[in-house]
Amino acid sequence: MTVAQATVLLCAGGTGGHLFPAESLAHALRARGVRVALATDARVESIKDGFPASEIVTIASATPSGRSLVKRGMAVVTLGRGFGMAAKEIRRIDPAAIVGFGGYPTVPPMLAGQILRVPTILHEQNAVMGRANAFLARGARRIATGFKDVRGVPAKATAPRTHTGNPLRPAVIEAAASPYPALASDGIVNLLVFGGSQGARIMSEIVPKAVAQLPADIRARLRIVQQARAEDLASVQNEYLALGLSGTDVAPFFRDMPARIAAAHLVVSRSGASTVSELAAIGRPSILVPLPGALDQDQAANAETLSRIGAALALPQSAFTPDRLTAELLDSISAPEKLTAAAAAAKSAGILDAAERLADLVIETAAHT
Q1: Which of 25, 65, 124, 326 could be joined to 210 by an S-S link, Cβ 3.0–4.6 Å?
Q2: Can you say how many angstroms the Cα of residue 287 is from the centroid of all Cα atoms in its chain?
Q3: What is the separation, in whole angstroms, between the first and last Cα of the chain?
Q4: Residues 329, 331, 333, 338, Cα dihedral to 10°
Q5: How far is residue 52 CA from its own chain's centroid?
């Protein structure tokens, strides 16, 4: 099958962490003349108009987790129904390869593809393989990884592994061209704070209190951009207003996040795979607070990839207190050379051509069907 004749089916759940790398790969494949289809879950409505696919199919999906045996059983039934839907769509689409980006919404189409003997490629974004990918890994033809070292890959998963990096959105590639902003010892410091839908609350609780404890002359130099949940918005804004801070920008969502990362001297955030990859690509120092309680501890492993090269400080949430953050902010702002060195270390770990690397792997795999 030639590239011009090929269709590649991408499988990703309807959240940014899975869809962003899938979208980047879709752009890279389409640029090579490959037709792209997307299989995703019911959350597709929010992205279907912007995703670069010739067609988007919705597959029934659920996550079999939690303590309730009834809910877990219902989830398994839903996944089974999704498998039947996926098998029908795969026969119709006839893809040369199927690429999965993790999460349980990828299980029905990836498993159906494996049973129908379509080559499947797993892309694992995190430094610890997720449970859905681990379930599918044994039947995969190839495994691509966002990080060089990935823990939790099942011993029976014998497919060759390729470190491609995590595919980046065009806006991230554009932002990566911006050099680290010069930081004078007495100049303005741009602080960016975000945590995603699951992490913004702790940022809203801790960061304003930490800023309040900074010496007045240091605090006056801060220009803060902070993501906060809608229900926390007023309280965060009021805390900064009470401190007399000018130029703060607090909102539930920023559409231009890559540009805001590029403008930052320091980032305080969670450590999802996309966030860590974007911080590396753009080259910005960070204080990372991994999401606690995850069975796989994937965010802790992601944060470690930057902390061990001096690009980030990884703080468990139990240590993320106002006092600790105040001390870390004061240390960073008082030593601009440390921030500059951390920015360079982050940049050294960035992979800007990850989407092209993954596209190469997909086309190579499809060509050997």
Answers
A1: 326
A2: 16
A3: 8
A4: -120
A5: 19
Residue 163 · residue 361 · CB < 8 Å:
no
| Closest alpha carbon to 328 in 213, 170, 249 | 213
pLDDT digits (tens, 9 = 90+) for 109-123: 999 999 999 999 999
Single pTM value for the model: 0.90
Torsion sign over Cα 76, 81, 82, 86:
positive
Compute CA 219 distance to the chain's CA centroid, rounded to the nearest angstrom: 31
Q: Does domain 174-348 have CATH number 3.30.479.10?
A: no
SS3 137: helix
The CA distance from 108 to 93, in Å, is 15
Beta-carbon-side half-sphere exposure of residue 127 (alpha carbons within 13 Å): 20
Element at 11 (helix H, strand E)? strand 7-11
Contact status, residue 168 vs residue 352, Cβ threshold 8 Å: yes
Count of beta carbons in the 10 Å neighbourhood of residue 159? 18
Token pair recorded at residue 243: 């401190």
Q: Using the 8-state DSSP alphabet, how is residue 15 labeled?
A: S
| Helix-helix angle 273-282:298-307, to 10 degrees | 20
The letter for the amino acid at 12 is A
Q: Supply 242's token pair.
A: 């009470």
pLDDT in tens, 286-343: 999 999 876 678 899 999 999 999 999 999 999 999 999 999 999 999 999 999 999 9
Residue with tokens 């999906």: 61
* Number of helices (H), then strands (E), in the chain: 14, 13
Give CA torsion, residues 337, 343, 346, 351, to 10 deg.
-140
* Cα separation, 18 vs 101, whole angstroms: 6
